[in-house]
Amino acid sequence: MHAQGNQVTNATGPAWVKNIPTDDLIKWRRHIHENAEVSFKEESTSEYVESILKGFNNIKILKPAKTSVVGILKGAKPGKTVAFRADMDALPVQEETGLAFASKNENISHACGHDAHTAMLLATAATLSKMKDQIKGTVYFIFQHAEEQAPGGAKDIIKSGALKDVNAFFGMHVLPNFPAGHIGILPDGAASTMSDEFSLTVIGKGSHGSMPHLGIDPIVIAAEIVNALQTIVSRNVPPGEMAVVTIGKFQAGNAPNVIADKAELGATIRTTSDATRKLVETRIKSLIDNITKGYGATYNLDYKNNYPAVQNDPALNKMAKNSAVSAVGKSNVFDAPMMTASEDFSYYKQIAPEVFLTLGVGNGVANHNPAFNLDEKALQNGVKVQVQIILDYLNQ
To answer: Where Mn(2+) 2 is bound, by residue (predicted)?
Structure first.
């Protein structure tokens, strides 16, 4: 046994590892998974989290929003304030995993892994609650509602003022198709994308399919819009800039011999810089306007700017990588590519610097797939890294 910094370690790692409630970690994850709740309706989940936190020593509980919970652990010594965040909401997706603990709630499932995030942060809180005398500063455990649905639960918590004293924010997300238990260090700067969306209704003029000259065909117009929008990334966005324009919804018509009176499109847009975000939005609006007018149609467009990009602070990111290596070994830590997904964790940067990491959970389908599942053996490494990051930040 030897001393490393302020921590006593042995051959199996820091002494505090024995305090990780390994069995409870899995039990908590499965209970939350089985009782999945969608954004802004996480009543049972937040009550469950609160009840578990009450069973730990030294943790004060706040409810900054209706279905969010924040646990606060004050160390025995003065110091900085650090926060780790987990999201709790599920998706409006019917589960197709076949698990014994599959969601009991129809058309709702944890297809993104937020059940694991919540369970890991509970285990982190349980571990650190037994280390009050060794902690220098204050730890906030943020169990956040509504990450999946804009405007996002982070905004509610920030608005409450509950986190105004936090000096740094950390978060972690599970990702499939990386080895179970491997920690991904996302890039400095933009670690995720900005997320925007639009809903468009092209309004034409209905007619009989055999008399197209008497109508204005919204399907033809909408199809041309779809094709034109594909030129934005290839012909307007500077090479090397990341941008995605995806039309995920196209609905029109009810009969093969009827020209519909309207067509509906829905899209998601991902960018990483403010300049490209504005460029893409301007081009989308211009193309839609000019194409519909050219055909004599009209339209209704609802364009929404959603989450900004997560911006990893370089100094904190370097510290987090060192913490991860210390906690789980260099062979289990890798430099991960930027996420093309988006995250309302990005809003916490309004208060203090932030860092977001990923946790590999083994091979499988992507997040948001009805069959999404994870290797539960990965979760203990997630907890180890969370605890180590918090301790290292406070001991800087």
So the answer is: 112, 114, 148, 368
